[in-house]
Every structure is written in structure tokens, then in C-alpha cells.
Amino acid sequence: MRARVYWPVTIAASLLVGLLAYGLTTTGTDTTLDSAMARGERVEPPAEGSLPVLGGEGAGSLAGYRGKVVLVNVWASWCKPCREELPLIQKAHRMMANRGGTVLGIDVKENSGAALEAVDEFGLTFPNLRDRDGSFVREWGQTGYPENYVIDRDGKVAAVRRFPVTQEWLDETLPPLLDESA
Amino acid sequence: MMRALLAALLALALLAPAAAAEPRASLTDIEDEVMCLECGTALNVSNSDVADQEREFIAELIAQGKTKQEVKAALVEEYGPRVLAEPSGDGFELTAWLVPLLAALGALALVALTARRWRRARPAAAPAGGDPALDPDDARRLDAELAAYDR
Questions:
Q1: For residue B95, which residues of chain A lie inside 8 Å, CB to CB?
Q2: Which one is predicted more confidently, B8 or A85?
Q3: CA distances for A78 relative to A61, A84, A181, angstroms
Q4: Within this chain, do residues B78 and B98 fall inside the same structural domain, yes or no?
Q5: Which residues are registered as beta bridge partners of A71?
Q6: Which residue of chain A has the CA closest to B100?
Q7: Domain that holds residue A104
């Protein structure tokens, strides 16, 4: 009789442990991109799905920029370091636009009204997509705000910056990639 | 004239329950049903910049006269379905509904099983023929105690 009671309890406990393990593995930070960068490798973007266009109709994706160098800037207007970084990002976009490149903003976890106010406030002229709940950038192993990823002309991730950029980093990273041909 | 008055009264009578069923939305009522997307906690216990912006968004919608359901629909439109604290019934989130249900059923089954075992064990433990006989010494002590109590 006692053994009969133990079996269901064991199965239920195993299911709960399995559920917990699944939850932990799916919510953990993905470090695949960082490992590849540390090895000096260029890799395919972890996620390329389409996202809604901020302040426009339809959706956009990285695939639409193949052949260009793309500085993917993860930002939100509620993030103070992002706001401090945005003038530098806009300046980088002006430089890149003349050399076959662009900035692609990914506005994360905010309503479009607040995001568009920031676009006006900082005079941003680069395209922006909306990652409404942050699920897109999570696949890129995002750990904070702002973050920047540089995509080369072949559509591969060439550089990752997990904290605000500096002019020095932009000057070191972007021109060599812009000089490359697809 | 009388007909128009009756029609107006009928319309009022029909509209009154509908208005009562859809009370005016309030921030405190909505806050505990909405998640702070960055903190992973309900909005009413979140103090981050994201939470402040979400609260501001909700307050604007309330000021526009939106109902609670309209506010929640607008939140989902802007932030996605994960902004709502209540898990959806799809995919992995289904476990949030199923696990408590299965746990409750398991607990019920365990109680039923234990109760059945107790009921089976009790007749075997009880001596046949009613209450056990009292030891003569104990019987004398009991009589003495009761007599002292009566005095």
C-alpha cells in the first residue's frame, strides 16, 4: 500500500522539478553571441524576425538591410543611459548613411507615443522598429540598456556592445566594416 | 408625448444596468492586473522607470474616459500580451492554470486515500465488545476523585 502512494508522489515531484528546470533554462541569458565575439567570429544574427515599424505601418526586419552595414541600437526613452547615448547614435547614422550603412533602432518595452516623443526630441532620422515586450532582444542575449550590435554587409554580427557606446568605439568599429564590400 | 416619455424611460432602464456593469476605470484597480515588463512584477509593487511610464500611459487612457477592458486592450496593443498579469491559456503559460488544478486534485486524492486508510485501520485497533475495561486501581482512583469533586 505504501509503495503505491510513493509512485504518484515521485512522478508529481519529478514533473514539478522538470517544470522548474524548463522555466530556468528558457528565461536565462543566452551568451552564444558573446562567446562568438570573444573568439573573433562573425555569426548569423540570433533572431531575424520582423517587428512593427515605429510610427508607421507594417513590419520591418534586418533582412531588409542586407548589403548595408547596420548598427542595431537597442533603446527606450525611459532608459537614461539610452537618452544620453542617442545623440551619438544619430551622429553615427549621419556618417553611415553616406557610406552604405544605417542605424536601425529597436525601441523596447514602451508605448509608441512615448517613443515617438523621444524621436522628435532627439531629431532621430534613422528607422526604428518596436520590440513591444523585449522578446526579440532577449534572443540576442540582451542584459541591459542600451545595447548595440553591428551587422556587416553579409548580414553577420560583427560586433556587440552590451553598454553605452563611446565615439572612440564607434570610430574603431564602424569605418573598417563600411570599407568592406559585400 | 406619452409614448416618447415611455420610450425614454425604457431606454434609461435598459442603459442603467449596462452602466453599472462597466464602472469607471481606476489606476489602483488596473495596476495589480498589469505587469511591469522590465521588473517582472505587478505594476502596483514596481518602482522602475518602465513602471512609471506604463502607469502614465494607463492614467492618460483613464483620463480619456476608457473603461478597464479598453485600457487593458490598449496595453496589449502597445506592449504585447505579456503585459497582463493573468497568464494566457496558450503554450507554456497553460501550465500556470493546470499546475494548481492538478495539485489541488492530487491533494484531494491524497486526503481521500488517507481517510480511507484511517477508516480501515480504526476497527482493527479498537477492542471487540466496546470500551476497554478499567484497571481496578484506576477505577478506585477515579471513584475517589469523583467523590472529592462532588463534595
A1: 19
A2: A85
A3: 24, 11, 37
A4: no
A5: A103, A150
A6: A16
A7: 31-179
CB contact under 8 A, A19 and B99: yes
CATH number at residue A149: 3.40.30.10
| ipTM for the assembly | 0.79
Residue B25 belongs to some domain of the structure: yes
CB-based contact B53 A1, cutoff 8 Å: no
Domain of B23 in residue numbering reads as 17-84
Which chain A residues are Cβ-neighbours of B83 within 8 angstroms? 133
CA distance A6 to chain B (A): 11
A15 falls within a domain: no
- Distance, in angstroms, between A112 CA and closest chain B CA? 7
Can you tell me whether residue B135 is helix, strand or coil? coil
On the question of pLDDT at A139 being above 90, the answer is yes
State the average pLDDT over residues A147-157: 97
Nearest residue to B33 (alpha-carbon basis) of B65, B69, B60: B69
My answer on whether B79 and B22 are in the same domain is: yes
Reported as a single tens digit per residue, the pLDDT across B6-61 is: 666 555 555 555 545 566 789 999 999 999 999 989 999 999 999 999 999 999 99
pTM of the shown model: 0.72
**Pick from B47, B25, B22: which is nearest to B36 by CA?**
B47
